[in-house]
Design goal:
Layout (H helix, E strand, L loop, with lengths): L1 H13 L3 E3 L11 E3 L1 H19 L5 E4 L7 H7 L7 E6 L6 E3 H4 L20 E4 L2 E4 L9 E4 L4 H5 L2 H8 L5 E10 L14 E11 L4 H18 L7 E5 L11 E8 L10 E11 L1 H10 L5 E3 L15 E3 L2 E8 H12 E4 L14 E4 L10 E5 L5 H14 L5 E3 L5 H10 L4 E5 L1 H6 L1 E6 L5 E5 H11 L2
Parallel strand pairs: 3-9, 19-20, 19-21
Antiparallel strand pairs: 1-2, 4-5, 4-6, 7-8, 9-10, 10-16, 11-12, 12-13, 13-16, 14-15, 17-18, 21-22, 22-23
The chain binds glycyl-adenosine-5'-phosphate.
């Protein structure tokens, strides 16, 4: 498992997906930069999520709230108290630190350091909020926090959105943005980092309908991963036991992906998204702390939504069903799921090179580069000129890469390795007939099409 993980990490760096932050200074604790291919890939994931949540569903609006908020938000949400803390143990011999939940199923179970067998300290609570200061003076009054979850920006805007958009329950608010946590043991590449992106949706509904909506959203979220090509056998749901529920949740089910890392007994399963019934925790606490009445008044007008209706003439705190996915963790899962190695290569037409070929079978909509443009050879000026014209033709429509270095076979493999669905080859026939070949990444089949039809054909293929 560890070897496969190393190969994926190495590909991610070699091909410009993910770099260690501040690498020239020796790296900065568990922060990563998304390179030229990584940013396209992550943008595609976020776009897919946004379209899925805001266009497919009725009664859904978006938000982009500030990362910095009043510290009172975090007081009210419970994040500054013990609720948002991990339990940490330290080895008295090698001084390595571990999150208790990573090395034990229960507190009584573990007494020895998993690395050196040394004695462990008693568990200590460690709050995960990232402190910062606003204004010129570093004093208590100027202290605030980088948001630890994007959804708090949604709750504090509940009333603004309700009034400005004239919404009726049930409705949802979707948001994508950065979140920060001072993780004690960040590790496993981009799986657990201190700065990450969340794609969160908060669904406000009548308390009596919370359970129905919880099941609805869980199914919808599972479908999204599967529709983007995640293999069924690598995806599962797991209910969070009562004793491990986050401080705000009445019920939580994690969507887990089978990653190629982690202790054998976990079998690689790790959370990529949480579905939470947050009850009225957030709205009632913000009401109490801000003095604003955030109860919803249902006037009894039937909701326009086909999805369900509010309950008539009541004032109540809506319950919140949350879907909380990590953009970085999703990217990592899509990357692992798409990664394939083919021993001896896939080529049938030429003698097998006997080297391992890497194929990244990403869903077309997620692939960072959609089309590669390749002149058959580079020492033929007429071919190169024509290939550059084709590149300019396609560039406004698709993320394209022009490549003329090395043999054509090698260039196809370079594109397979980054998941490019289509490669356009400009050959000698092109000069006579004004047509090109389109090579399909997965089947390696080639078809000839006229250049004048190329953009439209690719648009259809990539739809
Ligand atoms: N608002 C609810 C919430 O934040 P969570 O289970 O703590 O719930 C939701 O986080 C998702 O955010 C996780 O499933 C994961 O995808 C992502 N996430 C959380 N902590 C992360 C970290 N340190 N690094 C990367 N992603 C993280």
């Amino acid at each position: 498992m560890a070897a496969l993980m190393q190969k994926i990490i190495s590909l991610a760096k070699r091909r410009g997906f993910v770099f260690q932050s501040s690498e020239i200074y020796g790296g900065f604790g568990s922060c990563y930069d998304f390179g030229p291919l990584g940013v396209e890939f992550k943008n595609n994931i976020k776009k897919s999520w946004w379209e899925e949540m805001t266009r497919k569903h009725e009664n859904m609006v978006g938000l982009d709230s500030a990362i910095l908020m009043s510290p009172r938000v975090w007081q009210a949400s419970g994040h500054l108290t013990a609720g948002f803390a991990d339990e940490l143990v330290e080895c008295k011999s090698c001084h390595k630190r571990f999150r208790l939940d990573e090395i034990a199923n229960s507190k009584s179970e573990i007494q020895k350091c998993p690395e050196c067998g040394g004695q462990l300290t008693k568990p200590r609570k460690f709050n995960l909020m990232m402190k910062t200061f606003v204004g010129p003076v570093e004093e208590k009054a100027a202290t605030t926090y980088l948001r630890a979850e994007t959804c708090q920006g949604i709750y504090v805007n509940f009333e603004n959105i309700l009034n400005s958009m004239r919404l009726k329950i049930p409705f949802g608010i979707a948001q994508i943005g950065k979140a920060f946590r001072n993780e004690i043991t960040p590790k496993d590449f981009i799986y657990r980092t201190r700065e990450f992106e969340q794609m969160e949706m908060q669904w406000f509904c009548h308390p009596k309908e919370a359970s129905k909506w919880f099941n609805f959203w869980l199914k919808e979220r599972m479908k999204w991963y599967l529709s983007l090509g995640i293999k069924k056998e690598n995806l599962r749901t797991k209910e969070v036991p009562k004793s491990e529920l986050p401080h705000y949740a009445k019920k939580a089910i994690d969507i887990e992906y089978k990653f190629p890392f982690g202790p054998a007994e976990r079998g690689g399963w790790h959370e990529i998204e949480g579905i939470h019934n947050r009850g009225d925790w957030d709205l009632s606490n913000h009401s109490k702390n801000s003095g604003k009445d955030l109860k919803y008044f249902d006037e009894g007008t039937p909701s326009q939504s086909k999805l369900g209706s509010g309950q008539a003439k009541q004032k109540y705190f809506p319950y919140i069903i949350e879907t909380s996915a990590g953009a970085d963790r999703s990217l990592f899962a899509f990357l692992c799921d798409a990664y394939q190695e083919i021993k001896g290569g896939r080529t049938q037409t030429t003698k097998a090179v006997k080297e391992i070929e890497i194929l990244l079978k990403l869903h077309k909509s997620l692939a960072p580069i959609k089309v590669a443009v390749l002149p058959l050879v580079r020492n033929e000026p007429k071919l190169v000129k024509k290939a550059k014209e084709v590149y300019q033709l396609l560039k406004p429509h698709f993320t394209c890469q022009y490549d003329e270095l090395g043999s054509i076979g090698r260039r196809y493999r370079r594109q397979d390795e980054i998941g490019t669905p289509y490669a356009i080859t400009i050959d000698f026939k092109t000069l006579k007939k004004d047509d090109v070949t389109i090579r399909d990444r997965d089947t390696m089949k080639q078809e000839r099409v006229k250049i004048k039809n190329l953009t439209q054909i690719l648009k259809e293929k990539l739809r």
